[in-house]
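Blinded run. Sample ID left blank on purpose so nobody reads anything into the name before looking at the predicted structure. Input follows.
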Amino acid sequence: MKKQLEIDYAFGYVYDKSKLIVMYPAGTNVIDLDDYEMEVEVAFLEDGIDVAFEENDVKEANETIKPLETFLMKPSKVIPFVTSIKNAETKEELPRLLAEFDEEYELKENYIKKGYEIKDIYHVFENVVNYIPKENLDNLNILKIENDKFDMDKFISTISENLDEATDKNLISIDMNQSDLTPRLYIKANTKTNTKFVLFGIDINNYSQGILCANNEIIKDLDVDMGDVEISNTKDIGYIINQENEYITFKIANYNSQTSNNNQIAQIVDYSGIFKPMMIDFINQFIK
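Blinded prediction complete.
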């Protein structure tokens, strides 16, 4: 009987702000030792997960990892890795073959040299608070305006009027509390607060086509660059607006009205593509 190798693969989700790679098991392949060529395996992985792996496997992995986005934001990239090479019959680990593979593939070692931790998905889900990045969210303000120089009432009433056909007026401006776990996350409040989520763009595909924005523009090309923003029948885009110390600050956020634990949350995004200039221009209309 020919000797065989058992090769385990994983998808590595890269979270740059946390300097973390989260490994999701992506299956196993058994091949004859005589057929094993390290260079071929390396080339296979270098094609990327969308080419090298089945679409359904990638989709399942993405759906499983998605809850981490609440705390770690979206991964910057997803990289396939070989995590183990074993004797298929005895299950004995073959560290020399794995070390040779990693040396040729280089990616893992490059990330380790940059200070990244490589952890399996189960560990990260159990210890996610340890990996929440520490950052200065003031850097994500798109505008900072003195309180008395901005017409907030007119701003909100205009949005309400322009989005009247697409949503309930009560959903235009929502009081929010900042999460104790991560400063990027806001949870719908039951009382009045200094922070609001104010709607800007909403999916109208249930009766028309595209995304209706508060400036009365409709984005019909859904392949346009939207950055980190997700728009759907439960996810909208808008502003996190904080009024404090005589200033108003504006950040761009995704609002999710139906989370798995029945919360309604808003999450600040880094990059919002086409929306950022539109949203800044709209704010400027209400500066006194």
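Unblinding after everyone has recorded impressions. The chain has a mean pLDDT of 91.
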